[in-house]
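wait is this the right file?? whatever heres the structure
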């Protein structure tokens, strides 16, 4: 396929987040001699973080209002797409894929849906029905999500691709970063920094990090927890830290765009989340050479399958997590071992080149199959 194909990507939002960062990486590195992209966001008037970087790539970005209703939103989307004349429509998030499928059906072009997080095989509702009936293919970012979606399909026929997220190798000067962070956020430079990042909602289980800070209080090692992100539970977690009398051991830094840049300044990455697709935070921590403590769940197993690459623990076993953190706090050699092993594996298997190649393959496969049907 030599001619340029017009690609319309419909994103639910462009906030600071792993799924949105992966969209930017795809747009920034896709072959623009092969694809001509346009992006529609369904989260207007919020000045989402990735809006300007996408526009800076020279890619048209349209903001479709949330009001007065879903039908009006679809009509506005169709108006934009008719003018653009896409050859393929891609719903980046699952809920935006419902709109993408309807638009593609009306315009007579192929559609790809996106699964960017863990998928519940029992998930029902109009969005799920529209994706199953109107989209030609689905991209999941993990084997676990792809398997769960195939199970949910039953006898329905729909092509499901797995395209793992990409991680970048961004070498930085650890010493300089640490000094800058210490000064900017008044962090104890001489402590061992235990780091975590993510949106503060119940499934991310940041309350477990506070429990770890409390349990480690008797440790002779000087440790400090650094938590980056915001969300509905942030105020509650700060209140909990005060009630547990651990505010001297924890800092909530709020949302920091491109938090991965600061990863190499940390010492340990602790990830208590119970629900993910293919977590960018774990990939970025591994790429930065950090030892990782997390639950032994499919999304972590897929990233770090060997027990030499991370300390993956029985889910919600708080005693095991406290013990794992204690071992790492007490042993620089152990931290170096896990960090270097994780870094080598992630950079070898989840690089940008593989990601761009895989995404290109999906687009070309769907386009070719559609053209053969015509």
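ok assuming it is, sequence goes like this
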């Amino acid at each position: 396929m030599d001619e340029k194909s017009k690609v319309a990507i419909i994103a639910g939002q462009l906030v600071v987040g792993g799924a949105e960062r992966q969209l930017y990486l795809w747009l920034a590195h896709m072959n623009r001699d092969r694809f001509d992209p346009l992006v529609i966001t369904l989260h207007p008037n919020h000045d989402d973080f990735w809006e300007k970087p996408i526009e800076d790539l020279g890619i048209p970005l349209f903001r479709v209002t949330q009001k007065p209703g879903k039908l009006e939103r679809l009509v506005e989307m169709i108006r934009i797409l008719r003018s653009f004349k896409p050859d393929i429509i891609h719903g980046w998030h699952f809920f935006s894929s419902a709109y993408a499928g309807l638009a593609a059906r009306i315009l007579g072009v192929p559609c790809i849906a996106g699964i960017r997080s863990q998928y519940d095989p029992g998930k029902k509702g109009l969005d799920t029905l529209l994706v199953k009936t109107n989209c030609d293919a689905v991209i999941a970012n993990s084997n676990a999500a792809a398997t769960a979606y195939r199970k949910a399909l039953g006898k329905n026929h729909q092509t499901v691709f797995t395209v793992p997220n990409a991680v970048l190798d961004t070498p930085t000067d650890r010493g300089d970063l640490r000094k800058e962070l210490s000064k900017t956020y008044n962090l104890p430079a001489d402590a061992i920094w235990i780091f975590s990042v993510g949106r503060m909602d119940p499934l991310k289980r940041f309350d477990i990090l506070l429990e770890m800070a409390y349990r480690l209080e008797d440790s002779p090692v000087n440790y400090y927890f650094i938590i980056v992100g915001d969300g509905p539970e942030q105020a509650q977690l700060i209140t909990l830290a005060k009630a547990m009398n651990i505010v001297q051991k924890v800092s909530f830094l709020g949302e920091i765009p491109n938090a991965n840049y600061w990863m190499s300044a940390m010492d340990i990455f602790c990830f208590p989340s119970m629900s993910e697709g293919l977590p960018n935070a774990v990939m970025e921590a591994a790429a930065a050479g950090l030892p990782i403590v997390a639950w032994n769940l499919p999304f972590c197993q897929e990233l770090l399958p060997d027990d030499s690459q991370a300390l993956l623990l029985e889910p919600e076993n708080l005693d095991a997590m406290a013990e794992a953190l204690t071992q790492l706090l007490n042993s620089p050699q152990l931290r170096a071992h896990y960090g270097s092993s994780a870094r080598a594996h992630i950079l070898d298997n989840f690089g940008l080149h593989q990601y761009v190649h895989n995404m290109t393959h999906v687009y070309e496969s769907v386009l070719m199959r559609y053209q053969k049907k015509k």
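The chain has two domains: 5-166+351-373, 174-349. so i think its the right one actually
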